[in-house]
Write a structure and sequence with these properties.
By secondary structure, this protein is α+β, with helices and mostly antiparallel strands. The protein has helices at about 35, 85-95, 110-115, 135-140, 185-195, 225-235, 245-250, 290-300, 330-350, 355-360, 380-395, and strands spanning about 15-20, 25-30, 40-45, 70, 75-85, 95-100, 125-135, 145-155, 165-170, 175-180, 205-210, 240, 255-265, 270-280, 310-315. The strands form three sheets. The protein has a seven-stranded mixed β-sheet with strand order 3-5-1-12-9-10-11. A five-stranded mixed β-sheet has the order 7-15-14-13-8. The chain has a three-stranded antiparallel β-sheet with strand order 4-2-6, with no helix packed on it.
Length: about 400
């Protein structure tokens, strides 16, 4: 298998990126003269060289191809270079002088939502609030014999694919910009690439190269626009391959969550109510963040029947690294909360956590938190029963302490 980072073409140039030196700052000036004067350098581009709108994003066009006026994260690209070798390109990047005016940043959900907090973007730091409502939670908690309430925090998490992000761009004899890249979504990439490089959609061709692991990370634009701009500027093939360090800080992560979760159950083990407030840190840009965080709210009760539900989700922008798609898409973060709650409820009621789950798991004919009626495809009960039978056959017991 030949991955994009291993691909070569005659006359190929190598690209590097100058990343922001600050999490939040205004840009006073960018001096690229020393980099342009370096032998072997064929192009040095800043926002002034982007022929299109200098905006891209999977769902919202809130990211800049190259930072303009302001940086909002260490993941912001400020300038790009194409040179005869990676070493020359790296030397050129180091010669670019950027005059920054550092700004106060927000680095937690609480700070971002505080009164008079610095604004990450032009709008409020709370991008979206969604709700899930079912039944009456006040009545549900009144019916409960045991109530558990806790706050949970999950961390930012990297996908860590074996292959870092890579792309090779070239212009063919028909004037079509070809981009061979490790991507999970070539046609959505093209919709973001074409306007920014100043070409019609049919003049951009994105080829999905073999992907050495993505897991949601390569759902977003990575190398494509930068490599494409440099190929158009130089008239030569350009390859851009991220280092592992760049891959770690410059691209999307699993969102950190803060979850306030309250749940109640009767003495017989039946859940009566769940109330949750879910805050997701999307970093300075949205990517697919609002959908990830909204989905966490939809799945806040897990695979269990709860008659009374009140859930609120909040998509928050900060100056941290960007949150985006990752396997599970918000469901894993909320599972930390709802499964911990189930264990503590079972312990408080003196029940086996497995039997407690069997009582409350979704069964055909019951409804989820959003009112969807589940059918015979619901497998959680059968899975739990199989676990119980296996444990019984092997003399294993759950501790209720």
């Amino acid at each position: 298998v030949l991955y994009a980072g291993d691909m070569t073409m005659p006359g190929m140039l190598h690209a590097r990126i100058l990343w922001s030196a600050h999490a939040h700052a205004n840009i006073r000036s960018i001096d690229t003269s020393a980099a342009r004067a370096l032998p072997g350098v064929h192009a040095v581009l800043t926002h002034a060289d982007v022929p299109g709108p200098n905006r891209y994003g999977v769902a919202v066009l809130d990211q800049r191809v190259l930072a303009q006026d302001k940086v909002r994260s260490f993941a912001d690209a400020v300038a790009i270079v194409a040179a005869d070798s990676e070493e020359i390109a790296r030397d050129a990047v180091e010669r670019i002088v950027v005059d920054y005016d550092p700004l106060p940043g927000v680095f937690s959900i609480e700070d971002a939502l505080a009164p008079h907090a610095p604004r990450v973007n032009d709008a409020d730091n709370l991008f979206q609030h969604t709700t899930v409502r079912k039944g009456n939670v006040a009545e549900g908690f009144a019916q409960a014999d045991f109530v558990i309430e806790h706050t949970y925090r999950t961390q930012s998490m990297d996908h860590m694919p074996m292959e870092p992000e890579a792309g090779l761009a070239y212009v063919d004899s028909m004037g079509v910009l070809n981009i061979l890249t490790a991507t999970q979504y070539p046609f959505r990439d093209r919709r973001q690439i074409a306007p920014n490089v100043g070409l019609a959609m049919n003049k951009v061709r994105v080829v999905m190269a073999p992907v050495g692991g993505g897991f949601g990370r390569k759902d977003d634009i990575t190398t494509e626009i930068h490599a494409g701009l440099l190929a158009l500027k130089t008239g030569r093939p350009v390859r851009l391959v991220y280092t592992r360090e760049e891959s770690l800080f410059a691209l999307t992560k699993r969102h950190p969550f803060t979850i306030h979760y309250k749940s109640g159950a009767r003495a017989d083990g039946r859940l009566t109510a769940v109330e949750a407030s879910i805050y997701g840190d999307s970093g300075p840009y949205l990517s697919l963040g609002m959908y990830v965080i909204k989905k966490a709210g939809i799945h806040a009760t897990g695979p269990y029947y709860v008659p009374n539900v009140k859930v609120d989700t909040y998509t928050v922008t900060t100056n941290n690294l960007i949150g985006g798609a990752m396997r599970g898409f918000g469901v894993l973060q909320i599972a930390v909360a709802h499964e911990s709650q189930m264990d503590m409820l079972a312990r408080g009621l003196g029940m086996s956590p497995l039997e407690f789950r069997l009582i409350n798991c979704l069964k055909p004919g019951l409804t989820t938190a959003t009112g969807q009626v589940v059918n015979e495809g619901t497998g959680i009960g059968a899975t739990l029963t199989r676990i119980r039978d296996y444990m019984s056959q092997h003399g294993l017991e759950w501790s209720t302490r």
